[in-house]
Design goal:
heterodimer, A: 180 residues, alpha+beta, Arc Repressor Mutant, subunit A, 2 domains, three-stranded antiparallel β-sheet, two-stranded antiparallel sheet, 8 helices, 14% strand, B: 245 residues, mainly alpha, 11 helices, elongated
Chain lengths: 180, 245
Amino acid sequence: MQSLAKLLEAALFAASRPLTLEELESLAPSEGDVSTALDEIRQNYQEDHGVELVEIAEGWQFLTRREYAETIERAQFALRPRRLSPAALETLAIIAYRQPVGRLEVDEIRGVDSGAVMDKLVERGLIEVVTRGEGLGRPLLYGTTPPFLEILGLKDLEDLPRLEELSVALRRPTPVDEPE
Amino acid sequence: MTSPSMREQAGPGFVVELEKFSGPLDLLLHLIHEDEVDITDLPIAKIADQFLSVIADLGLNQAADYLEMAARLLRIKAQMLLPRRLGDDEWEDPRAELVRRLLEYQQIRELVDWLGHAADVRAERFGRGYEAPPPDAPPAPLQIDLNDLLAAAERVITLIPQPMLHRVVPRPLDVEGATARIHALLAERETFGWSEAIGPQATLVDVLSTFIALLELAKRSALTLSQPEPFGPMVITRAIPREAA
């Protein structure tokens, strides 16, 4: 590997979170093209390694390969994060697609009070107040955070499925073979 | 054989069953799926009846969100029964708003499946030094210097609304009366005990008034207070008129 690739590899190894392109570029401002170097590392780790370089949460991170999940977990070297409840996922879905969005709109779409769920999500750092609305009382408006992308393994918000791709309407179940 | 006892162990159905549906829309969708009916042409009477019977069964008829939906369904059901003239262009389907919300919610449910799957896949890969997020993220350690703290304190103090300072609860303490009583006792006797100072059948207010009066008089060197033994009764002694060195 070229020297820049080695430097980036070291930084990514040392970091316990995804490093953004800007962060990686700041390591060696004049050493060459970081994207090319990242590609080199990724290809290097494509085979013969238990970890791989993954593009995630608007950054890059070394992650273990999926096939070792169970073994690692059984040995308790690392713990899987707690699963999000359906209520939390519903709330996240609404916020991810409607952001910036206020509490009232989330309540309205879910048909239940979502205050407690949203507080929990703020606490876990998955959503945050991004701005205030124009309406009565200038309500707080929420958006998703980089940790949200991280726990879902998404590169960025563009990675979310497009709404048009969903089989929106719930109709009389007719067997439809979805084209692959 | 075991199922009845297991059901009892599961406790009251209320909490358990609440988790089954994340809200009234979820329950409605479940019923619609089960009946395999067309969501855009909801058989509202049937669905409303089912909804009511399910929430009664699950003990959800106490939960406001479910009750609100039940009321909404009954209103739509009633509106559907109103006669309408043939070819009435003004007629609006009373179900339209509910159908729109259901479709929207249905979309959210699909996203929930997608997000849940994405999170599961992501959870199978570990990063370096990865730790599950703590149940309660501890607040970041404070790093401030004294001047910042003082400036912040000043800001907070100036923000305290003035009227608050005047909201004083009237205290019916009678310190003056207690002082007079102690003076009378002092004139009679050189030394006396706490119980004599507060007098018989003292109320809490009497005790407090007497205590404050004693402290005040002790400050003015009119008397001295002593306690011969730990937790023993307090002894009040007339102060010697000349200055105690």
